[in-house]
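RECORD TYPE: inverse folding
INPUT: structure tokens
STRUCTURE:
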């Protein structure tokens, strides 16, 4: 049987494209708004689309593809896919829970350590020829209070690493307390921030979490507090973050996600107490291939008439 064409809307490395092709599909990238619009207009017969949470897929785009059967999000996020519109059309939506969670949790710990120990600035100073003048004390991580905003799969992995490896105290905030969870639940992001030494954002994106971390939350975190965000850029009010870091309202921040990425506001790039990595937390060799393998498994299940493995909802 001929490979089934797959419209690919987000950048994929050659290894993942090869894995998808080996699975019996013909990935055809259309990257960026213009290429995406052209691909949809030129071929209304697409049956399968591959995207991610940030890139998404709209109801209008679905309407332009009358034969569309399945939309796969290559990672766990699916916030910008119009899932309700897909359901109304009977279009299957899948995502990739668990495929990159260990890598994201590892990166979260790396950011926290780099932030509290001030690794990037120390490295830059030594490479400028400085030594004695930058050897002032930095906060440790061991025994600190870690507040996790979004105790899902990734948040739980971070908590296990932080508690088991560094003896950190853990508390969390979700919309509702998790049944059977040993960690204390805080009633609001602000209450969690007031308790924590480090506030770690692992919440998904979307309208329900937009600017969940705002100026009052940062104020509650306080001048010795640190923020880490490996969730979604939209969860954090970036203007409030710039103001808090500039004024010393909080001590520092480390983020792997930016609202509106890949564009990074100049005001953020100029901050010496802000570490930014380019949404790379989930990108390890192991997780990259795992995401592609799960996409193939979901696509094959669907087109062979079997239930998909990881449906959204």
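DESIGNED SEQUENCE:
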């Amino acid at each position: 049987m001929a490979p089934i064409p797959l419209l690919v809307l987000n950048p994929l490395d050659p290894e993942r494209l090869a894995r998808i092709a080996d699975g019996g599909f013909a990935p055809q990238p259309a990257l960026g708004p213009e290429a995406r619009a052209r691909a949809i207009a030129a071929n209304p017969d697409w049956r399968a689309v591959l995207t991610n949470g940030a890139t998404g897929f709209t109801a209008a785009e679905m309407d332009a593809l009358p034969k569309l059967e399945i939309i796969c999000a290559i990672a766990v996020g699916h916030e910008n896919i119009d899932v309700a519109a897909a359901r109304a059309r009977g279009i299957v939506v899948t995502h990739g829970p668990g495929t990159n969670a260990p890598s994201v949790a590892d990166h979260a710990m790396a950011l926290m350590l780099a932030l509290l120990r001030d690794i990037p600035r120390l490295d830059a100073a030594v490479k400028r020829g400085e030594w004695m003048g930058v050897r002032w004390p930095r906060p440790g991580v061991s025994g600190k209070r870690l507040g996790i905003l979004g105790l899902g799969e990734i948040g739980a992995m971070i908590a296990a690493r932080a508690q088991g490896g560094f003896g950190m105290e853990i508390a969390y905030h979700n919309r509702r307390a998790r049944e059977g969870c040993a960690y204390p639940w805080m009633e609001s992001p602000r209450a969690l921030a007031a308790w924590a030494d480090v506030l770690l954002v692992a919440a998904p994106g979307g309208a329900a979490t937009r600017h969940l971390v705002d100026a009052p939350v940062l104020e509650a975190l306080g001048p010795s507090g640190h923020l880490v965000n490996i969730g979604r850029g939209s969860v954090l009010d970036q203007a409030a973050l710039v103001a808090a870091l500039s004024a010393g309202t909080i001590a520092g921040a480390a983020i792997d996600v930016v609202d509106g990425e890949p564009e990074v506001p100049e005001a953020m790039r100029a901050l010496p107490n802000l570490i930014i990595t380019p949404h790379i937390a989930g990108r390890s060799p192991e997780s990259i291939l795992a995401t592609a393998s799960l996409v193939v498994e979901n696509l094959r299940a669907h087109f062979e008439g079997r239930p998909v493995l990881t449906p959204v909802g």
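NOTES: The longest helix spans residues 285-303.
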